[in-house]
Amino acid sequence: MTTHGGHRPVFCTIVPPHLLDKLARAEDPALAGPARRSLEHDAFQRTRRRMTTVIGAPSVAPPSGAPADQPYRTIYDTAHSQDLPGTKVCEEGAEPGRDETVNRAYDGLGATFDLYLKVFGRHSIDDNGLPLDATVHFGEDYDNAFWNGEQMVFGDGDGEVFLDFTIAVDVIGHELTHGVTQHTANLDYFGQSGALNESLSDVFGSLIKQYALGQTAAEADWLIGAGLLAPRVTGVALRSMKAPGTAYDDDMLGKDPQPATMDDYVRTGRDNGGVHLNSGIPNHAFYLVASALGGYAWEKAGRIWYDVLTGGELREDALFSDFATLTVKAARERYGAGDELQAVQKAWEQVGVRAV
Questions:
Q1: Which residues contact 81 (CB under 8 A, 6 or more apart)?
Q2: Residue 99: how many other CB atoms lie within 10 Å
Q3: What's the confidence (pLDDT) of residue 244?
Q4: Which of the two ends of the chain, N or C, has the fewest CB atoms closer than 10 A to its terminal CB?
Q5: Residues identified as active-site
Q6: Per residue in 214-257, pLDDT tens?
Q7: Is there a contact between 105 and 85 (Cβ–Cβ < 8 Å)?
Q8: Contact 145/42 with Cβ under 8 angstroms?
């Protein structure tokens, strides 16, 4: 664990608020209703998260003894209520059941645990065997999934714009990685540090999907949330790391506003200073590094990013340039002055971030 002062877990959702805001203003009640209810759910959970941060969250210990080289998963079902965690419906070692949402949540938690353990030697989210809890069927037509500092929560989507949020394993990995960041760099969730927080979740969420599928950097789609958009939506995913700004262009959702370089950096007071928007810039830098190095992205590019996340030097209020500088340092220390270092330096240059 880093020496940064205290954990300040934040409420992090996979669907950016600007998308739900747009849907909430739609004339079609089938679109506006679920989006408005989702925003209300999110506001309530965000307040609850702040209160838990103030009074302290209950500590959760591993089942027994030293952390094991296997996950400890429990899945709950709220049956469309908002009462967390819900009724226990599946726990570690259970056979797949009839509810595919439960099965996908269970498998996604396992895929996340596997990547962190087998590639980085990390025992669960906190590196101490933290049990992995998730709740499914949250709320009525809830258009989101989130990590609340203690567990994962998945909505079923409204069926009009968003589908079941357990469909995309990278979404599960994304949200759980917010927990990893919470226990390591503890990046502030505002401005560039918040965008780095979001980007790290996209990076490792994508790596979790690639690892589960056995894909090389060249074979991966580099999409976040592929399969979540309903058939009526003109788009392929929530975000694209390969080409930020191209994930969707739809009458209901508008055009994907993510920038790929600092030339198009978004300055806004909304969305905690544009954390879901400007994350496209470090996302694209990671894609460029992984593509330049080839092979499996978790082996070199992922290792460099993980070294920075867990190395203890990344400040909670880090800027893009701070992160870039640390990735250059990590590449040099791990691989010397070879292709890896050159790939990292060139990638940050291409997205317009200065790395010292």
A1: 138, 139
A2: 15
A3: 98
A4: C
A5: 175, 276
A6: 999 999 999 999 999 999 999 999 999 999 999 999 999 999 99
A7: no
A8: no
Let me know: does 277 contact 259? Beta carbons within 8 Å. Answer: yes
CA–CA separation, 246 and 296 (whole Å): 24
Residues in the chain: 356
* Contact yes or no for 15/224 (Cβ under 8 A): no
Task: Give Cα 107 to chain centroid, integer Å.
Answer: 16
Among left, alpha and beta (phi > 0; psi -120 to 50; other), residue 56 is left
Contacts of 150 (CB under 8 A, 6+ apart): 9, 52, 57, 58, 60, 133
Summarize pLDDT for 85-125 with one digit per residue, the tens.
999 999 999 999 999 999 999 999 999 999 999 999 999 99
